[in-house]
Amino acid sequence: MGRKTEIVIIALMIACIAGTGFAIGHQRSIIADLRSDSVAALQKAVPLSDYRKKQQKEVGEILDGYEKKLAEVKTQEEADKLIAEAKAEVKSIKTDAQLTKIEKKKAAEKAKKEAERKAREEAEEAARQAAAEEAARQAEEEQQSYSYQDSGSSSGGGSSNSSGGSSGGSDSNAGSDGCVDPDADLI
């Protein structure tokens, strides 16, 4: 081989090495971009502002773990898989809107139970009061019935005694005209 050929071969080898270095550097840049883009996509997919402070801490810990894993990815498929896993894990944590909805539902159920309890107590009280009023009414009717019977027997007996005394005509205090003599001795 001639000197020119050797120089050409050496130049080609240098170009290949430089090209490979360029390709490797370019590939590293692509992987770095993929990793940073994947982390940004994950953060965008799971906004912490949707969560309350306590849940933000939990979500943040999950995202931190997946961001570390995303720093090691080499393909878009690996990144997509990790992002999907992170979203699925975060999905189990309730957002502020979900927690608010649950709290409102519980408050409504509690208010409903309280209203039912109060209505039940009021109905029971009304039933007790109605029973007490009915018992008082019955006692009053019985009392009136007894006093009517007592007054009927005493007035009936008194009138028969007085009519029997005047119709008999044999009253010892009565005079010849049937009037009672005021001067007679009463026994």
In total, the number of strands is 0
Rg calc: 56 Å
What would the average pLDDT be, to the nearest integer? 77
**How much helicity do the residues have?**
over 70%
Number of helices: 4
Overall geometry comes to rod-shaped
Secondary-structure element string: HHHH
Low-confidence stretches: 155-169
What class, by secondary structure content?
A: mainly alpha
Major sheet details: none
Strand content: under 5%
Distance between the termini: 181 Å
Give me a quick take on this structure.
With 187 residues, the protein is mostly helical.
Question: What does this molecule look like?
Answer:
There is one protein chain. The chain is mainly α and 187 residues long. The chain contains four helices and no strands. It has helices at residues 3-45, 53-70, 76-91, 96-168. Helix 1 (3-45) packs parallel to helix 3 (76-91) and helix 2 (53-70) packs antiparallel against helix 3 (76-91). The chain starts with a helix and ends in a 19-residue tail after the last helix. The relative contact order is 0.05. Mean pLDDT is 77; it is low at 155-169.
Strand-helix topology:
Layout: H1 3-45, H2 53-70, H3 76-91, H4 96-168
